[in-house]
Write a structure and sequence with these properties.
Elements (H helix, E strand, L loop, with lengths): L1 E6 L9 H12 L2 E5 L14 H14 L3 E4 L15 H9 L3 E4 L3 H11 L5 E3 L3 H5 L10 H11 L5 E5 L15 E10 H5 L14 E7 L3 H13 L8 E8 L12 H9 L6 E3 L12 E3 L2 E7 L2 E5 L3 H19 L1
Parallel strand pairs: 1-2, 1-3, 3-4, 4-5, 7-8, 8-9, 9-10
Antiparallel strand pairs: 5-11, 6-13, 7-12, 12-13
Helix pairs in contact: 2-3, 8-9
């Protein structure tokens, strides 16, 4: 069975029910679930004091389960970044641990890939948000569930999406676009908070993906332009935009919205900006390997992101090994 540990590295879990539901459902999906001892700890808005959350992170790394799935995001990993023993995290990844989450986990994921080329984590669901919802709240999203189980089995090697219409793309859109590079990014606000720190991945020619929630479009625009003015956007092979929803409209907008924010960035960079990535604070989300080298292909409005799955890598290594033996004889 695939071992899966639930841990809470950031914000406090207000109550235990969603965690219990998530643990049960993940068990039904065939995972051998364990819950970290500190998962329900409470200190102010955090899941325990900083030292306790840091210990939990290292404890999970040392145990090296097949899957380390965060229960929720919120805020809190920023406080730990300077104290994390990244070598311990790297050993777990080399051992096969898939660290999964989004939102505040963006800090851990990018801090990690900033230090370790060739290793990756997973942008994907959070236990309570995605597996802990009651049936009355809509239960589990099937695409999210299936994408997660496939990614965790090592079999997922591509995700596809359709570009959102209505955004002012260049004439002809991005039909025929092909790009290859290191995948990175995540939550826009959390990512911007890493700029200029030791936790910033200096990725050039990469594929950057971004999402955010409850940020007014002008705030999204300001952060996108910060990345562009810092030279980050122009240095990428492509940028993929996920969901940016949840903010209340302002009477001052006068028709301004997220499309205009994207337009403002498009007019300032030659880097292709694709919209419609099914990722963010939404029910349906794919899993993406942060830090892995991926290939992006666009045909018409259909985009596909592909990578070498664990299964293929293992098979390739095995195949190569056999070939070597054969050659040796």
């Amino acid at each position: 069975m695939t071992s899966l540990t639930l841990f809470t590295p950031s914000g406090v879990l207000a109550n235990a029910q969603p965690l219990q539901r998530a643990a049960k459902r993940l068990g039904q999906l065939g995972f051998e679930v364990s819950v970290d001892a500190n998962a329900l700890a409470k200190h102010q808005r955090f899941a325990g004091e900083d030292a306790a959350r840091l210990e939990a992170l290292h404890r999970v790394a040392d145990a090296a389960p097949s899957v380390a799935l965060a229960t929720r995001g919120g805020y809190g990993l920023t406080r730990l970044l300077d104290q994390i023993d990244w070598g311990r995290i790297a050993r777990s990844v080399e051992h096969g641990t898939r660290w999964v989450g989004y939102s505040d986990l963006t800090a851990l994921q990018n801090g990690f890939i900033a230090r370790h080329k060739g290793l990756s984590m997973w942008a994907g669901p959070l236990a309570c948000d995605d597996f802990g919802r009651s049936e009355a709240e809509g239960g589990i999203d099937e695409v999210t569930r299936d994408c997660f189980t496939e990614a965790m089995s090592g079999a997922l090697e591509a995700v596809g999406f359709r570009e959102t219409s209505g955004f002012r793309e260049p004439t002809g859109g991005f039909d025929g676009l092909e790009a290859r590079g290191r995948l990175w990014g995540g939550n826009l606000t959390v990512l911007c908070s890493l700029l200029g720190t030791a936790h910033w991945p200096k990725v050039k020619g990469g594929i950057l993906f971004l999402e955010d929630v409850n940020e007014h479009p002008y705030r999204v625009e300001r952060q996108l332009l910060q990345l562009q003015q810092a030279g980050v956007i122009d240095a990428q092979a492509a940028v993929l935009l996920g969901d940016f929803s949840g903010a209340a409209k302002s009477p001052l907008d006068r028709g301004y919205g997220i499309k205009d924010a994207v337009g403002a960035l498009r007019s300032r960079t030659k880097t292709p900006l694709l919209t419609g990535l099914p990722f963010g604070h939404v029910r349906t989300k794919v899993c993406l390997p942060i830090g892995a080298t991926v290939e992006l292909y666009v045909q018409g409005r259909e985009a596909i992101i592909g990578w070498q799955s664990d299964a293929r890598l293992a098979h390739g290594a095995h195949h190569h090994h056999e070939h070597g033996d054969h050659h040796h004889h």
